[in-house]
Description:
single chain; eight-stranded mixed β-sheet; 403 residues; alpha/beta; 45% helix
Amino acid sequence: MDILILAVVIAVVVLGALGGLVVGTRRKKQLPPPPPAAPDITAPPAEPHVGDEAETPRDEPRRTIEEVDLPGGGAPTAVEEPPVVEELPPVEIEVPEPTAGRLIRLRARLSRSQNALGKGLLTLLSREHLDEDTWEEIEDTLLTADVGVLPTQELVDGLRERVKVLGTRTPVELRGLLREELLKLVGTDFDRTVKTEPETSKPGIVMVVGVNGTGKTTTTGKLARVLVADGRSVVLGAADTFRAAAADQLQTWGERVGAYTVRGPEGGDPASVAFDAVKEGKEMGSDVVLIDTAGRLHTKTGLMDELGKVKRVVEKHAPLDEILLVLDATTGQNGLVQARVFAEVVDITGIVLTKLDGTAKGGIVVAVQRELGVPVKLVGLGEGADDLAPFEPEAFVDALIGE
């Protein structure tokens, strides 16, 4: 009985302790704050952009579902096709005019600009009395025509002797007399052939030199036409790397007759271009390689030395067959100064006189040949593509004195 009473007491005590613990815990809990009377409704924040995570969300305009393009629901986007590149038509190869008798066909043009010399001499020689004053006028006429002092003296001495022996002088006799003496000055015994056929193996190598403005690059292009007209295959070397568009100009000339052009970067090494041109000509089996050099001023020693370098580099392949000096016939005695300097740097083998159809005086042919001891081989008689002609002394003298 006592044990039963003790168990009941212990149970009551335990229940009382548990009840006090629950009441204490409820007192420690705080009640939640009362809800606001009217909660504020705000728009959902905008999605952050790159770098905007730390910024305060900004209000942005939003599109309705009608404005949103659903996948596959909009009109197909047109894909632009790449532009069609039109192919340029191939360059039409021209057939140059044959060279045979070209100067004779152009005699009328030459005669119109050059026969003042011949007419002046014939007028003076036709005087009834040829006194000292007349002979001085004849000398002045020859000097004005750029014949040169020594050639003038030779011609006057020859005319004096012939007229004295002849006695009476008819116009026909005077013309024949003057023609013979002028032919002696111009020279009929020169070999005026442009050497393009080497004795050993192809190709023939021709280097063209001259001062800027003389028509050097144009002459090279026209010479290519002359050779193509004679049935030769040609490679052009654009070794004038200092003048803007010189290579383009030469390449245009070549394309017109089917000649291949070797060129290098603008401002590059001219000797390297010349070397490559000869190498290419050999590999292609071409008949002739024409090398256009820079139109360097004859007064600049460094540039002239570089011209000598081009010559030496080319000769590592094969000897040069021809070195043509291009002179502007209108420059007169100044052209002789240029000729002297070029002759000291490279061995000039022939002369090309350009612009002989303009205000040039025909005596420059005599003067430059005497100065260099080499012949005039080609003459430029106009701006046309086929106006470069082999020089023919008889046709030239006939144009000087007229019909």
